[in-house]
Write a structure and sequence with these properties.
- This protein has a single domain (7-191, 209-222), classed as Rossmann fold, CATH 3.40.50.1360.
- It has eight helices and ten strands.
- The protein has helices at residues 9-26, 41-52, 80-87, 109-122, 159-165, 184-189, 203-211, 239-244, and strands at residues 2-6, 31-34, 62-65, 67-69, 99-100, 128-131, 153-156, 178-181, 192-197, 229-234.
- It has a seven-stranded parallel β-sheet with strand order 1-10-9-6-2-3-5, covered by helices on one side.
- Helix 1 (9-26) crosses helix 2.
- The longest helix has 18 residues, at 9-26.
- It is globular and about 45 Å long.
- 43% of the residues are buried.
- The structure holds 2-amino-2-deoxy-6-O-phosphono-alpha-D-glucopyranose.
- Residues 35-39, 66-67, 132-134, 140-141, 161, 165 line the site of 2-amino-2-deoxy-6-O-phosphono-alpha-D-glucopyranose.
Length: 250
């Protein structure tokens, strides 16, 4: 596990885009595991810019996303399918047929979970998995729990997650209470992890995840066991780590 310090959101986005961009440049048929949320948006903007400049080519890239709200159609502007299209896919030359997300409109949970696990398996391994982190330490929508789940599953969202994500909706009542998410087992199988974290609201989750015990109560803590995990975090997100473990992150 390596934590790379960034000054602020823009610096974090640039450093993370360099890591992801290098992956695509070195392996043009990379399988990217992608994430939503505000954390990766700046990184996605840079990738779009570099693709438009001709520096990056996504035509042979495939992608699988971490999660999707249960019940939302892809054309709902709160769905993660909509988010990915508007924040990345439409700006790069990826073939949209090679981009995959869980289908939030499939009401048959067992069927959808099995279908999405088969999609992930058919990719032959994720080369790099982008992650954000929830204020409660969640990755994807793997909420604090007694266990780490292996495969895709449908979760009931944590109260804190619903509150945090309500900023994107007209009212908190509109936030879906359930979501499909890739399991921690699938996330851990990615060859490389690239986590992007910014802001003081994530400082406690950062401390607990990377300087605390490995526990499913803090799902991101499992990343301490990953052989190639890079975390790009800004000063604000590192605030508590800097206080408790001065010098631990250069
Ligand atoms: C959301 C997503 C996660 C994301 C996290 C942080 O609920 N399911 O994949 O990493 O919360 O979001 P943000 O980057 O907006 O802080």
């Amino acid at each position: 596990m390596r934590i790379i310090r960034a000054k602020d959101y823009d610096d974090m986005s640039r450093k993370a885009a360099i890591v992801l961009g290098a992956q695509v440049a070195a392996k043009p048929d990379s399988v990217l595991g992608l994430a939503t949320g505000s954390s990766p948006v700046g990184m996605y903007k840079l990738l779009i810019e570099w693709c438009k400049n001709g520096d990056l080519d996504f035509s042979n890239v495939k992608s699988v996303n971490l999660d999707e709200y249960f019940g939302l159609t892809a054309d709902n502007d709160q769905s993660y399918a909509y988010f990915m299209y508007h924040n990345l896919f439409k700006g790069i030359n990826i073939d949209i047929k090679n981009t995959y997300l869980p289908d939030g409109t499939n009401p048959d949970v067992a069927n959808e979970c099995a279908r999405y696990d088969a999609v992930i398996d058919s990719m032959g391994g994720v080369d790099i998995q982008v992650l954000g982190i929830g204020g409660n330490g969640h990755i994807g929508f793997n909420e604090p729990s007694d266990v780490f789940k292996l495969g895709t599953h449908c979760v009931t969202l944590d109260k804190k997650t619903i509150e945090a994500n309500s900023r994107f909706f007209n009212s908190i009542d509109e936030v879906p209470t359930k979501a499909y998410t890739m399991g921690v087992g699938s996330i851990m199988k990615a060859k490389k992890i690239l986590m992007v974290v910014n802001g003081e609201a994530k400082a406690q989750a950062m401390l607990d995840s990377f300087f605390g015990d490995i526990t499913p109560r803090v799902q991101a803590s499992i990343l301490q066991m990953h052989p190639d995990c890079v975390i790009v975090a800004d000063d604000a997100a590192l605030k508590l780590i800097d206080e408790k473990f001065p010098g631990a992150v250069k």
